[in-house]
Batch of 2 targets.
Target 1
Amino acid sequence: KKNYRIAVLPGDGIGPEIMQEAVKVLTLVGEKTGVTFTCEEARIGGIAIDTDGTPLPEETLKLAKESDAVLLGAVGGPKWDQNPGHLRPETGLLGIRKGLGLFANIRPANMHSSLVDASTLKPEVVSGVDLIVVRELTGGIYFGEKKRYDGPNGEVAEDQCIYNEQEIERIIRVSFDIARKRQKRVVSVDKANVLESSRLWRKVAERVAADYPDVELTHQLVDSCAMQLVRDPKQFDVIVTENMFGDILSDQAAMLTGSIGMLSSASLAAGSFGLFEPVHGSAPDIAGKGIANPLATILSVAMMLRLSLEMDEAADAVEKAVWAVLEAGHRTGDIAADRSKAIGTLEMGQLVRDEL
Amino acid sequence: KKNYRIAVLPGDGIGPEIMQEAVKVLTLVGEKTGVTFTCEEARIGGIAIDTDGTPLPEETLKLAKESDAVLLGAVGGPKWDQNPGHLRPETGLLGIRKGLGLFANIRPANMHSSLVDASTLKPEVVSGVDLIVVRELTGGIYFGEKKRYDGPNGEVAEDQCIYNEQEIERIIRVSFDIARKRQKRVVSVDKANVLESSRLWRKVAERVAADYPDVELTHQLVDSCAMQLVRDPKQFDVIVTENMFGDILSDQAAMLTGSIGMLSSASLAAGSFGLFEPVHGSAPDIAGKGIANPLATILSVAMMLRLSLEMDEAADAVEKAVWAVLEAGHRTGDIAADRSKAIGTLEMGQLVRDEL
Ligand SMILES: CC(C)[C@H](C(=O)O)[C@@H](O)C(=O)O
Ligand SMILES: CC(C)[C@H](C(=O)O)[C@@H](O)C(=O)O
């Protein structure tokens, strides 16, 4: 295929600035490979609340569904923090995940060797960390029934955490498929000593593992995994876990590297369709200043090329360009040892394209 | 009062070894203060499963209820890992928490300056860390209704996370009372952008805060807190959170110090009654070898003296004795830089008593 439609959702805060650089990189990839990328923009998050009165306008979801892949910047900001639930930027995010069936969130936590010092952990503990958290993204306590009512001891609030076998099986399979191309080790994280959903999770993981005799499956309790990530993050290859645990552990794992301005993530549906975004947030405090790090968004483009568009070579080229720029010593403020030498968003984007 | 009844539950693995040293310290405290401690042993966990056919025999719960405080070693081991739920050691732990109404789990994560090197984090990041995680211990998803049934997509499992205002209010109050005696800063951790129970949590936290104008309350989302604990653990004074999040974050926080063989915890009921235990587990791999570190259990005795028995001076004395022994360079294997110089459980206990 020589023509792809890409839905581009810049979102809020630094979203538009970093997305601009990412789209420029994608355009250059198109020129060099002869592939046409038709990038169509739409609103999500706070900007959509302000303009359309909802964090996820119908036309945004429609555009995304008609596209081959989605690029997302970031959503949210203090302006909308006090809004009621249905008018909050995150609700747009949860809505698009569910609406597009993006059940598999792939969050690599790795680091370029030149950034080891950015970590709060000792170099010998983090250098060489290369793990992927595979998080279930459309089930569990995020999407279970919610209740609020009055009881004898004041108001009562309930959240239901619910999983069925099929939901668990498909995410476990994603993790095994990924592990196969890596070190072939999956750690399934649950709280099977307490939760019924975790006991079902573990049972399904065991069953699926039988189809992957070449991949090693072990189980870790979530509290223990949170400890092990601090004690020895290098022990992990692929971690697979449910939605809520994945939210916590993937953020913890990201921060171990000390440079979340560099990390990107993919959220995949069945088939090759996916949404790609940086791990960091909308950073409202530095929005509009031209100093945000565009590399995580540019690396999201690489993930998209590889995972949704079968353009592995182009993906490699983008990643290599990013590493080359880092090796040459260029840094945005968030990853700079010496902030006075930090470069801006546009300059960093240009350097990556020059390298490409 | 000059006579206290203490329920002593050594449990499994290294439990009996470390408990022995703790009880010797308590006895010595009694001799020096003229207070009589009547220590009565009972079974819990795996040993109770083997002997009584249940992880929490009625007589153990009865003894605990009739006591002024409970000292617990540790429960669990591979022998019972494949047992069905009601015959698992952890079930005894959950049962005694609920049975005694121990709703407030107090987990300090701090470290003696001489142990800074044990951490996987850089010394400048961890030295001086002194935080307390206050975890709600008898509610939430741990004790909500559980279901398992067949559906169109295979088996379905459900866990209900439920909180009422009263349950939230009392644990928030505990955290504010603790913060008052410290740096007066409470971070309440929830996932209010997704969970109904977290929205109620946050509302109650705000309401209770009005009664403590001298204490600062801020809110952090659980994923963000997991990041901040890695990025800058010194920012925290008191963290208060619900049961499941507290399980994860308190273990993560403990591991930041690098020496969980040194950390103890309290689980308190309304009033002064409490259960005190080391944070580490039953370590079946080193059980019976006489090399386990008894200091966390000895420090649990100090916590008990302070929090349940109003013996602050004696508590201080025990803690000082422990620090003095560490300063003199004595180490068990788990915290030794040079393992060949490590001392055993009995020797460590004796050194603390000599110091006392
Ligand atoms: C914004 C929030 C709803 C979201 C989540 O919890 O999934 C975010 O933390 C993430 O990890 O993408
Ligand atoms: C053993 C387990 C049920 C328990 C818990 O999750 O509460 C443990 O992890 C703890 O933190 O004391």
Target 2
Amino acid sequence: MNKQESVMISDKVHEECGVFGFYDNDGFDVARLTYYGLYGLQHRGQQSAGIAVNDDNTFHCHKDLGLVPDIFNDRILNNLTGTISVGHVRYSTKGGNNRENAQPLVYQYVKGTLALAYNGNLINASELREEFMKNGAIFHTSIDPEVMMYKIAQERIKTHAIERAVLNMMDFVHGAYSLVLMSPRKLIGARDPYGLHPLSIGKLENSYVLSSETCVFDNIGAEFIRDVEPGEVVWVDKDGLHSIKHEKALERARICVFEYVYNARPDSVIQGASVYEVRKAMGHQLAKEHPVDADLVFGVPDSGLCAAIGYAEESGLPYGKGFIKNKYVGRTFILPTQAQREAAVNIKLNVLKSSVAGKRVVMIDDSIVRGTTCANIIRALKEAGAKEVHMRVSSPPYLWPCYFGTDIPSRDCLMAVKYSIEEIRQKIGADSLGYLSVEGLKEATKALNCDYCQACFTGKYPMEVPLNVNEVDYKHTEEGKK
Amino acid sequence: MNKQESVMISDKVHEECGVFGFYDNDGFDVARLTYYGLYGLQHRGQQSAGIAVNDDNTFHCHKDLGLVPDIFNDRILNNLTGTISVGHVRYSTKGGNNRENAQPLVYQYVKGTLALAYNGNLINASELREEFMKNGAIFHTSIDPEVMMYKIAQERIKTHAIERAVLNMMDFVHGAYSLVLMSPRKLIGARDPYGLHPLSIGKLENSYVLSSETCVFDNIGAEFIRDVEPGEVVWVDKDGLHSIKHEKALERARICVFEYVYNARPDSVIQGASVYEVRKAMGHQLAKEHPVDADLVFGVPDSGLCAAIGYAEESGLPYGKGFIKNKYVGRTFILPTQAQREAAVNIKLNVLKSSVAGKRVVMIDDSIVRGTTCANIIRALKEAGAKEVHMRVSSPPYLWPCYFGTDIPSRDCLMAVKYSIEEIRQKIGADSLGYLSVEGLKEATKALNCDYCQACFTGKYPMEVPLNVNEVDYKHTEEGKK
Amino acid sequence: MNKQESVMISDKVHEECGVFGFYDNDGFDVARLTYYGLYGLQHRGQQSAGIAVNDDNTFHCHKDLGLVPDIFNDRILNNLTGTISVGHVRYSTKGGNNRENAQPLVYQYVKGTLALAYNGNLINASELREEFMKNGAIFHTSIDPEVMMYKIAQERIKTHAIERAVLNMMDFVHGAYSLVLMSPRKLIGARDPYGLHPLSIGKLENSYVLSSETCVFDNIGAEFIRDVEPGEVVWVDKDGLHSIKHEKALERARICVFEYVYNARPDSVIQGASVYEVRKAMGHQLAKEHPVDADLVFGVPDSGLCAAIGYAEESGLPYGKGFIKNKYVGRTFILPTQAQREAAVNIKLNVLKSSVAGKRVVMIDDSIVRGTTCANIIRALKEAGAKEVHMRVSSPPYLWPCYFGTDIPSRDCLMAVKYSIEEIRQKIGADSLGYLSVEGLKEATKALNCDYCQACFTGKYPMEVPLNVNEVDYKHTEEGKK
Amino acid sequence: MNKQESVMISDKVHEECGVFGFYDNDGFDVARLTYYGLYGLQHRGQQSAGIAVNDDNTFHCHKDLGLVPDIFNDRILNNLTGTISVGHVRYSTKGGNNRENAQPLVYQYVKGTLALAYNGNLINASELREEFMKNGAIFHTSIDPEVMMYKIAQERIKTHAIERAVLNMMDFVHGAYSLVLMSPRKLIGARDPYGLHPLSIGKLENSYVLSSETCVFDNIGAEFIRDVEPGEVVWVDKDGLHSIKHEKALERARICVFEYVYNARPDSVIQGASVYEVRKAMGHQLAKEHPVDADLVFGVPDSGLCAAIGYAEESGLPYGKGFIKNKYVGRTFILPTQAQREAAVNIKLNVLKSSVAGKRVVMIDDSIVRGTTCANIIRALKEAGAKEVHMRVSSPPYLWPCYFGTDIPSRDCLMAVKYSIEEIRQKIGADSLGYLSVEGLKEATKALNCDYCQACFTGKYPMEVPLNVNEVDYKHTEEGKK
């Protein structure tokens, strides 16, 4: 009946979070800019959102479960006065969707107050948490960033500055993370030494912005400066922008390739490459690898639309629409009961009968993860009169769980692990099925100025992955450790 | 700060309402089906929504301001038990956006209770209201359907059945309307004698559905039966579906052409024609009438997307995206202050720089009404590096106010009335500008099984239009009366 | 689980409503004064509340289910600008507790807009409603004042002024009512020709106030002027206060004696008599009629407190407390389940053990209606160690249903109809039981400047009472018609 | 406009909190019983409330700002399944009224989860907090119990059981506190070694209850067992009730005397003495110390009512009412603006004119703290016609700030510090003024089975009070340290 369930019936990998930070030097309305920033990052997390502001060293924070426009109103934003801010939108893969786990986390430590907005996943959080607790620590949330905050606080005692404490934290806390942190006088941003998640720096007049994605810079009229580098800690204070970098950081980021496949907004530029152009290139590549004689190319809204444009372009086949999506579906609604589902209640997507009837169609989607929805929509296309349905997937088969911030906890739920491609084709009822190859992916992403993590396709993880992460019962194979 | 303002900054014509009705013969959850029905009609009105159910002659109604998913929850739907229902979504052009004016209207009259959901606009409502009041009547809303309900109640005294009273009402109440009415034992649907607004009949197993648009039938798994005809009153009772028709009704409907241009969902079929296909045909026609040498064709989301596909197809130019729309924008959000707008806060649409930079682009939209947004988005395209912007509009210039249910109160607000096409081109900053011709529109709509009203383009109204309708100060010209 | 149920478990007669009106000549914040007025009348109705204001002939109204402080907030009050107002609090005995039935009712009629706040009960409402409907009228509520409004509108056509229409209405509409009505330029107040319900006129600087009770005048600093007389219509316009009176109106009001017994606030003065002093006098009289040797006198909170003070004073017995009431009980709370009730969950009243243990106590209450709670609280006193419990009731046995605005639909629910006093004593477990006599009531109310209706004690109704009022199945006896 | 302001205009000392705990052995609905328990403790804190339940070692917690009946509903209570619970109502003197600071606090520590509900004030919380933070600790609230929780967690590492950790905590954490703590398998209660705040043990069938006040036992049908002793830790587990006691604990509690003066409900029994009887005895004593010839005795509702009964009894003067209080005032309402206050808007209390006019009255209140309201109500009595107003206060002059859990931060705000009694009399406009003497207080409280802290009257604190507590700028005198 709620959003949670709505998410469950989707066949998409979910990104954990989006982060945003602002350091004002121009008298902007910091809370409102952060609000618009989070609005632009809403696709990265719909479960909770929050804004913390620093008003001359007094911190105010408002956060709750729900979507950005539902959580904030004029009165609340008016009360969030300040000159530095951090903001967060959250999709919860760990820790449960309750109010305590909403971010930013605001903590008092020995040097005052800190507010943390965090995107990622730690692989040694449980061990660290246990270790802290053995020394008497108490935790009020079940989420990783509280562990990280604890370590930062401990490191701060041993060093002279908060940015140094953040850098030292990287020695202990392992995993993938991009974070924005607000201290009494600074705005800090950091990416893990592998640079798995994006974080970019922007400038609005004389003020600085940090954001998970650059699309937000366009929303608020800011200019893109550069990406934060792997293992880099940047901070803004009254003297401007500064930076230090962890000694073990990679030279080139190992960005999560799924940002290009699905997570990021098409109008973001990550590591030098336009997400839209990469997706279109995936479509081009896919058309080269899996051509087919057909009458119409379309994408599954919204995840397959960009690649479909590329496929159509490359193949010369007509581009069109195969589905109409209810544009109010972003919000919580009452789901059909099982009985109603059998009675064919379908609120989200309608097949565009007049478009597909009598045609041989190519349907593009970005990925098949659990495979729960493909069969349904292909059946609907056939019922609407499509003569042939050729499914094309703009990424390679999803074979390995992700430990770095998405909600794929085990191989058991992955369709491509359990079945061959031909078996999948039969199960989903397609007339043909083609995935983008790993080589094709490489070709399509050549505009990136970095390396990328494609462990979900290849099992080659950028760092050692412990067996007990996320309490996954899955047996870690040798292959995955290569 | 509210939806109202959000609507004001849009340059679109707004349809007044969507209606839905259900007569159960199979034990369906009537309230939930109505909920899904209204969800599928949400694009026709976002200001209020309501459902009334008839539980063995006891009527329950729940309605409020807001969107369908925000107004209803499980508990509320569970309380709405019954076997007949009517539902309504509303965009208010008259009567103010307050709770009293939400529909369905539920009234007691001499034969029990009636619930009315109504889409349209009456041209003699004020006169009728005044006449009733001179005889002592009292009105608790300021909206037209209360007047209609009053007349139906009065006619019911003189005749033997509610459907006959509805038919007789048509002799007195003039204008454009599609209505769904629930009496103690019947579900009734009717269209005005001109058939200006759509209303279709569907069937789900042995149960009957009435809906403003057919897309809803797909949502709930119902089968399309036929359109209600102009001046026809249909009703469903325990003996099935029945019909009578007004003697002065047109043979062929004079459907509002703007349903195809903008109002309806692309996956609806109205008067035999797929809205999507008509829009694509408009794009084809537009490409024939206004070709241009360019590198990219795209539509303004979402109103120009279908025609852009047609334009690209006809012209052979590459189809792509020019903008990315924030998909959470359907809901209420806090608007930027004027200062923030100047600072370029832009939450709704981002230009897709990588796509348009260095290119000559063709941008398609469905219409230019007030012209408030075109200049902004063309400027944004140029700032993003577009070399040329060729605007194409998939309908003729909007020149005449609509009296039949949209929010165009006077000619003063219409851009094409005040300026020549060349002047408009200069004002919006386009490198070229082309509108679909009235003849082209005719070609594009040839799949319709009826005539259409295009008075907004030609000033030729299907019925006599009084000068004082909607208290418009505009001087009715001879031309408009032809 | 809701308020409704909470009401059901109470053994009190419920008054229907409280009304308030304000005509500003001094620049007061009319909506806020009305808000405070309704707050002071909250005891007269807790189911819905509303305020309508007249801002230079534009009417704004806000009303909802719930308590006054829950329905209104600063923003809402700020939007209710105007110079005339009417307000209403409601306890629903008829028409159901839904939002449509909340008052004030705002209607448009031939001369503009009217807003009505009404307290009372009509005995021929159904007949009138049916008659109107036979002529084609439609009703959107199931409550009496809509019928009254209709008649006023019809009379207005035949006469020259709204106040005259109100007066003429009295010829057709029978029952008990006090009303406040707002027209485009006037504030009108009226009482039925019997004067069964209270309505008083106050003055605040140069502005006028109408209120069901005078306690409100103290709340807002207004001065009491006089009561509206039976069958009188008063109105305030720019020329000040005016009055006309119905020719068949009683000279002296026949005020409902239950206002003194239970309904009104002790700090109100009705028809020249302080409610507090009358209640104390009832206690004095009761002590004279039913003396007893005891150690402690206390009242059942809050209904028996004033009479207990009088009883203690007259008898010379010590006054004290027997119960402590949870002072947060005014609001909705989750009721215990049956199982929990058996497990003795008691949220509302706690016996004050230290006070009653080992003592012979006199417990005073204002009335025994259904007798549902007496037995419980006497048992609780005994369990707490009270040696003897002598119950004294400060009004005569309640024997006849009320047709004029309380929720006593039939004799079947009245304990004193079914049982003798000795039987009642046994059933409630008291050691002795004494009611105030009809003569004693007369003595206690001698400060009133009018007659009173005590039909609930005597069956002598002030007007003819039809058998089918309120669809009561109770057989009207000859005795009741005398 | 909010509750906060409403509190500010009151002249009462505010208690910090109420706590409740339940250990079920009978299959009770634990959450609902806790709900009723908190409802009965609502007078101890109206700013936030919360319930945590332990469902076989899974903890669920729901808490929010507001009153108990507004925070919880059926659905929420249904989700709070479990067999152990702790509950809390809060009035915030420290830490701000925000959601983070609501209790119970739920934390994970080395042995699982703990939930803490706490009533009191620590005098070395800042020092402890600082010390923890110097070792790298982070705090997510600004309230004392988080510090206490931290210390308990640290002690738990060094000892074998949670109850022992609580006992050891008492060596480090100084101040006044009563707490209820829930561990994975136990319900624990504790009072500080001085026993400054109350905490009692009750039994409901085979289940155990802990509560700040015994009135709650009556609400839920539980039987009072005994008070928790000073410095005692009690716990309930599957083997029943157990106890250990701190070696430095006082033999007899030093209970806060203000529980009897104002804080507690009259129907509670604390340390063997009925609060109601103690208050009445204060009235008796006051009548002996400050007799006066008068016509009427009444209390200021609700704080002076019990003592007024005692005063009237002792003096032989007639007892009555001087004011009527709006019984809906417990909830948040919109406060009058300054202008409206001048215009005499008075929503809370109305003088009962008919009762006081022409009389010499004795008005009893429990205390004069800041003296903000006395002058107003005495003026109102005079305006209503009272000939003489003799104010009697049922406690000694309030001279010293409280460090143990009330909101009296400094001497500066205390009227009796700044003015002599004669000056106070003049300032409030009374004809005479008498306070209960310290000796009289002793006489009135002789039923207590313990000593009491009356430092607010005498400056003799039970423990050393540091100068910087609560960041009070007040200079701590020698007198206060004696």
